[in-house]
Structure formats: structure tokens, C-alpha cells
Amino acid sequence: MTEAPAIPAPAASSHWERNAEFWVRIIRERRDRYRTELTDEAVLAAVGPCHGLDVLDAGCGEGYLTREIARLGARQVTGADKSPALIAAARAVSAGQPAARFREADVAALPFGDASFDLGIVNHVLNDLPDITSPVRELARVLRPGGRLVILMLHPCFYGDRAERQAIRRTLPVADYFAAREIEQHFEVDGIVSPEPTTSWVRPLEAYTEAITGSGLYLTSLTEPHPSDAQLGASEWWRENFPRPLFLLITAARPMTSGQASCQVSNSPTSRRGSA
Ligand SMILES: C[S@@+](CC[C@H](N)C(=O)[O-])C[C@H]1O[C@@H](n2cnc3c(N)ncnc32)[C@H](O)[C@@H]1O
Fold it and tell me: Which domains does the chain have, with CATH numbers?
């Protein structure tokens, strides 16, 4: 993989700096059931076999997916994140995994050369970004021809503040849907509240597809990870905490050649509804 010359260290995303300890604890103690019982499996299914691939985990946080993809046999997985505290936390537990490495970087100005990666993973990051156009363009730039992008995010059609709480079932006015919505709230995971509020951005669906196709990628799937009937039947937690669609998983790819069609969509649902 080629690396562009070093760029100045990115400014720290301050709320992530101040929430870093909280975040590391939530992830490493596996307290976020949305991830551990739903979205991680959906993301890894979308990633598929990754043996021998060069992978970018953009906005990697404390790096658990970076480590997991390295464990699955990727040649090299680079976790990149704007938060120095999270990159330090990632490095601290990854010394025994040479295939996993970490770098402070802003996803809007990635310090990697063109066509450096076979696969990009963007897990719960696009909602953090006030602008998605430059980051998606950067992600497209660093993908090799034929390379793939896996993006998991909050469902833009349904997510509102505290949307995961069953008690709040208000609908979203159309005018609000078509405006970028900024949601500031403390994380609360398994009864633990983040010290700092975080800001999330939710945009209409078309903003994501435009950013993707406008960067020269084509969509390959669009699915909505949700609990299976079995999960809903067996778990009151899921019945209470999944009152509406909360997640969207989009995969895209860079054409092998510049002439390849730009809108191939083939849905292979991550839905586990009806599965055992
Ligand atoms: C919700 S966390 C997700 C972290 C990780 N992907 C995971 O799933 O655990 C969002 C992450 O995006 C990072 N982030 C926010 N803005 C960024 C940017 N412009 N460039 C790189 N990382 C950014 C934050 O530091 C934080 O680690």
C-alpha cells in the first residue's frame, strides 16, 4: 500500500476525546447489544471473506472491528480515527496483531495514496460528520478498482433523538426529513451515560446515495439490519428497544473500469426475520 506524505495532525474531535474512556469501556465490555447482537454480524456478513485484503476501517474508534478483520485474515487493516485518545487505546491492545495498525487521520483528508485499499469499512461514522461529501470522495479515492465500501449508519428515515426508546414514537415531519438534522445527546448504553454529549447528523437517504454515486462508486446493496422474529420473541429487551428501524447498511463498489455502470443494486438482505 502506498502512503501519501504526512499531513499535519488532525484537530481532535473534542467530544470524542472526552468520551474516549466511556467509549472504550462500552465496547470492550460488550455493553452495546445493538452491536453485539445485531449490527456487527450484519457488517461482517457484508464484508464477507477478507483473506489477503488491504482494509481501511475509517473512524475506527478503539479499533475492535480493525482487530476482528485482521483476525479474519486480512493482509493489513488500517484503523484511522480523528481522536488521538481512541487511537492510543486501539494501539494499546493491538500490539500482538501486526496486521492491525492505527493512524490518527481525518476521514475528510485521508493520509493514504489513491487506490490503497481493497475494502473500506465505515461503521457508525457518517452520522458524526457535518459534511459527508468530502469524506465519501476520500473513501472512494483510496479504494482500488473493484474495491468495496461497507457503511453502517443510523437509519436516516426514522432516527430522532432517543429514537431507540420505545416511549418516544413521534413521527418525523416531511420538512424535517429533507433537512439535515443535528441531534445532540448523551450516549446512554446499558445504563452508563457518556460524560459529554455527542452530535449526530442525519440526512435524507438521497444525500447518502448522491455522495456515493457522485464519488464514482455504485451501490451494491441497501439493507436495514433488524432483529429477527426469534430475537423479538425471546427478548423483551429487543421488543422495547427496537421500536422502529434504527440502522441502514449500504454497500458500494468502485468500478473495475471507468465505463462500468454506476447504479447496480442487488439487495441481499441482512434481515434475519424468520430465521431461527
Ligand atoms: C460512533 S464512533 C464509532 C467508532 C467505531 N467505528 C466503532 O464502530 O466502534 C464514531 C467515531 O468516528 C470518529 N470520527 C468522527 N469524526 C471523524 C473524522 N472526521 N475523521 C475520522 N474519524 C472521525 C470518532 O472519533 C469516533 O471514534
Answer: 14-262 (3.40.50.150)
Shortest-distance Cα residue to atom 20 of ligand 1: 106
Mean confidence (pLDDT) of the chain: 87
Burial of 86 from C-beta contacts in 10 A (0-12 / 13-18 / 19+): buried
Instruction: Give the Cα separation of 46 and 71 in Å (integer).
Output: 16
Give the pTM. 0.89
In one letter, which amino acid is 84? Answer: P
Q: Atom 25 in ligand 1: which residue has the minimum CA distance?
A: 83
pLDDT at position 263:
42
Which residues does 248 contact at the CB level (< 8 Å), separation at least 6?
152, 153, 154, 155, 156, 205, 208, 222, 223, 224
Q: What is the pLDDT of residues 214-254, one digit of tens each?
A: 999 999 999 999 999 999 999 999 999 998 899 999 999 99
What is the number of the ligand 1 atom nearest to the C-alpha of 59?
Answer: 22
What distance, in Å, lies between the first and last C-alpha atoms of the chain?
42
Nearby residues of 260 by Cβ (< 8 Å), 6 or more positions away: 218
Q: How far is the CA of 201 from the centre of ligand 1 (A)?
A: 13
257 Cα–ligand 1 center, Å: 31
61 CB within 6 A, ligand 1: yes
